[in-house]
Design brief:
By secondary structure, the protein is α/β, with parallel strands linked by helices. The chain has helices spanning 3-11, 25-34, 41-52, 56-60, 68-71, 81-87, 118-127, 148-167, 186-206, 233-247, 264-277, 290-302, 307-324, 331-338, and strands at 17-20, 61-66, 91-95, 100-102, 110-112, 132-139, 171-178, 215-216, 254-257, 283-288. Bound molecules: 1,3-dihydroxyacetonephosphate.
Length: 339
């Protein structure tokens, strides 16, 4: 099998998912300030190294997305961060976009930047050990947004990024995130996500992307966080699966959801429900940032030296999400294991 196709499959092999630890320095500073820890390169590395050397990495984390600063850092044992990740049987990856900026022509919306000089940066990241990459596009929902311009321009950028990444022999994670902010209901999220995914796959096809060597990282289909109507996990799973079946070509091997502001338990439960009814060939997994790290970060901030406690919490979350990739999770397991 082609090397990138093989990597894509390993990243979301049954029982495994992706740890999104690629927060930019700005975002990481917000996360650390929220638990009263100073955001220094050393502290950012300390937290991340604590997670990357946890036992849960072995069985449940197929890949870790890093940030530019982290992929170049050396751990306390002298290994580089990618070497540490590889020693747990996991694959190092890297966020390569340079952030979502104001979209000229529709300035309430965002366009993701980072294509200039990307070919050269990819060669550097490959040499540092990365074998997959991430690029995130964001879309807002309101009465008039997202605009056709935001949908088209972000899809175009995602496709140009994917072509460069495959040229560099790495797997692109294609992340079009429809944000959950707003009063809209689940049907509106479904419609917007469908339009976004359709345009992305139209552009990916145009750019001759080998879809078997890609991973899709989408949002789940959810009501807005200020919506008057709420939906249960079964409804969320049904709508999410329907949307993906209708808009994602079957060659895509894996779909790894972002958590996007769901609580840790919601993200796990929703993925579990999706896998209960998954009748597609897609491996349905996770690529969570907050939903894998939130509790661990809180515990770490309480006592930075108590590495075991932080790792125990991270191991538990990884295991719960790992179980949800095979629809084997239930709420009782949460209670038993956290007790
Ligand atoms: P969340 O799971 O916290 O949404 O982060 C995933 C991610 O990588 C966003 O780009």
């Amino acid at each position: 099998m082609n090397e990138i196709e093989n990597i894509a499959k390993q990243m979301v092999a049954k029982g495994k998912g992706i740890l999104a630890a690629d927060e930019s320095t700005g975002t990481m500073t917000k996360r650390l300030s929220s638990v009263n820890v100073e955001s220094t390169p050393e502290n950012r590395l300390k937290f991340r190294e604590t997670l990357f050397s946890a036992e849960g990495m072995k069985n449940h984390i197929g890949g870790v997305i890093l940030y530019d600063e982290t992929i170049k850092q050396k751990t306390s044992s002298g290994k580089t961060v990618p070497e540490l990740i590889k020693s747990f049987g996991s694959i190092p990856g890297i966020k390569v976009d340079t952030g979502a900026k104001k979209l000229a022509g529709s300035p309430d919306e965002k366009i993701t930047e980072g294509l200039d000089g990307l070919r050269e940066r990819l060669a550097e990241y490959y040499n540092l050990g990365a074998r997959f990459t991430k690029w995130r596009a964001v879309y807002i929902i309101s009465k008039k947004y997202p605009s056709a311009l935001a949908i088209k321009s972000n899809a175009h950028a995602l496709a140009r990024y994917s072509a460069l990444v495959q040229e560099a022999k790495m797997v692109p994670i294609v992340e079009p995130e429809v944000l959950m902010d707003g009063e809209h209901d689940i049907n509106r999220c479904y419609d917007v996500t469908s339009s976004v995914l359709k345009e992305c796959y139209k552009e990916l096809k145009l750019h001759n992307i080998n879809l078997k060597g890609t991973i899709l990282k989408p949002n789940m289909i959810l009501p807005g966080n200020k919506s008057k109507t709420k939906n249960n996990s079964q409804e969320i799973a049904k709508m999410t699966l329907k949307c993906l079946k209708e808009n994602v070509p079957s060659e895509v091997p894996g779909i790894a959801f972002l958590s996007g502001g769901q609580t840790e338990i919601e993200a796990t439960q929703n993925l579990n429900e999706i896998n209960k009814i998954n009748d597609t060939s897609f491996l349905m997994s996770f690529s969570y940032g907050r939903a894998l790290q939130q509790s661990a970060l809180k515990s770490w901030a309480r006592d930075i030296k108590d590495i075991n406690k932080t790792q125990k919490i991270f191991n538990h979350r990884s295991k719960m999400n790992g179980l949800s990739t095979s629809a084997k999770w239930n709420l009782n397991l949460e209670k038993q294991l956290t007790a």
